[in-house]
Amino acid sequence: MRPVLYCFIAFSAAFASLQAQKLNTVDYINEYKFAAMQEMKVYSVPASVTLAQGILESASGNSKLAKDCNNHFGIKCRKNWTGNFCLADDDAPDECFRGYSSAMESYRDHSLFLKGNSRYDFLFAMPATDYKAWSNGLRQAGYATNPAYGSILIGVIERYRLSMYDSMVILGDDYDTPDTAAGNLIRVKGLPAVYARRGQTAADIAKEQDMGVWQIYKYNDLKNGEELRPGEIIYLKPKRRKSSDQIHVVQDGETLRDISQQHAIKLKQLQKYNHVKPGQDLRPGERLYLMQKREDLDKAEQEKKKNNTDTGHVFPEARDKKIPEAKVGEGKGNPAAEHDVPKPNLSYHIVMKGETVFSISRLYKISADSLMVWNHIVNSQIQLGQELRIANTALVSKSLENKLHKVSAGETLYQISRKYQVSVDALRLKNQLGSNEIKVGQQLLIP
To answer: Same domain, yes or no, for 136 and 200?
Structure first.
């Protein structure tokens, strides 16, 4: 389930509504700019984009969600949310939205939400000062269903000159806010935690939480006497042996401990899964395993191939393996034997800068439609760093090829659902549709 605008309005009326808020938009910016800048420092999400999203999603702090649940970004509960919540009508009646003890906690969860979802990984490869790329990228990744979402964010940023706060962070201006979510108990990956305040020590947190100082150090993989960074997560219970996420893509400047804190996984387990030694540098773009060792995943993949029971689950470590090639249609007098294509039933390709569905399909000598079907790609949209499954076309059944439907003139979503005997809701969910509106020529994935 992806976050959507709680009360989204048409682009033509967006700025007019901002002028009629009970809480003035300028006042909202002044109140939360420090929080946005702090999030940019800790998690590299541009302050300008965070503020613009807060303005739109919370109606400058005046929406019912913002007032009742401190939810400033319209983030829904999803299955792994165990904290407070509010019910509100959105795509359906009484949908579950996350609830927070403070607005600052909402700002931090917004950063964690983006950082912890692989579909947003490509954003963090962009310059933190490129608010236009980030705004359009959020729309592309499906943060909101409105096709003009990126343009609206850019409009708000430029109208209120929010990019100045990005510059302040880059230039190192003092922007730590005295009012943070620190001290308020939060839950990260189901574990109780707090945010460290500026100048706060492990002893301070231990005293506030009635714990031993040794527990703060041990639970958070800290050395005795090590200073805490403002805004970092401090767990109050032991982290787990494995994360609920399978893989983490290393961002520039991240350390192994940063990643262990983000995913609530013990540092030693993270090192063990990835054969990384303490203090070893990580490469941006490197993939770290959070649930089991690389070789265990290899073994599981080989077992699937052996039993020929592949479920289509992507094993990202396969990207490191050399893709063997073989002749298709080998035999005397068969012209197809002259062309090399990938041999294995299942291999992977990492999307590089400038690549398209068409260019990748040509590279592997497969059809673009097949590539889209195997990877659930809609309207040829792919992202930098995305892993694509590359299968041997000779082994793909006709039924799989038919899983992509091109909308014809006059067709409705209901008619298509009847044709394939699936529900309208299932179609909308599969294709991330915010309404029943579809366009002629649009390609829909059939569940």
So the answer is: no
pLDDT in tens, 251-285: 767 788 888 888 889 999 999 988 888 778 888 77
Rounded Cα distance between 341 and 324, Å, is 9
Q: Give the structural domain span for 431.
A: 404-445
Q: How far apart are the first and last CA of the chain?
A: 16
Cα 411 to chain centroid, rounded? 33
The predicted model scores a pTM of 0.45
Beta bridge partners of 96: 87
Buried b (16+ CB within 10 A) or exposed e, 133-167: bbbbbbbbbbbbbbeebbbbbbbbbeebebbebbe
Select from 289, 324, 354 the last residue of a domain: 289
Q: Which residues pair with 445 in a beta bridge?
A: 404
Rounded mean pLDDT, 390-413: 60
Q: Are residues 122 and 74 in the same domain?
A: yes
Helix residue ranges, H only, 160-235: 163-171, 202-208, 213-219
Q: Give residue 259's pLDDT.
A: 87
Angle between helices 47-58 and 163-171 in degrees, nearest 10? 150
Residue 445: DSSP 8-state: E
Interval 180-201 mean pLDDT:
73
Considering its fold, how many domains does the chain have in total? 4
Which helix (H) or strand (E) segment holds residue 340: the answer is strand 340-342
288 φ/ψ angles, rounded to the nearest 5 degrees: -110, 140
Contacts of 261 (CB under 8 A, 6+ apart): 220, 221, 232, 233, 235
In 3D space, the residue among 33, 9, 57, 44 whose CA is nearest the CA of residue 120 turns out to be: 44
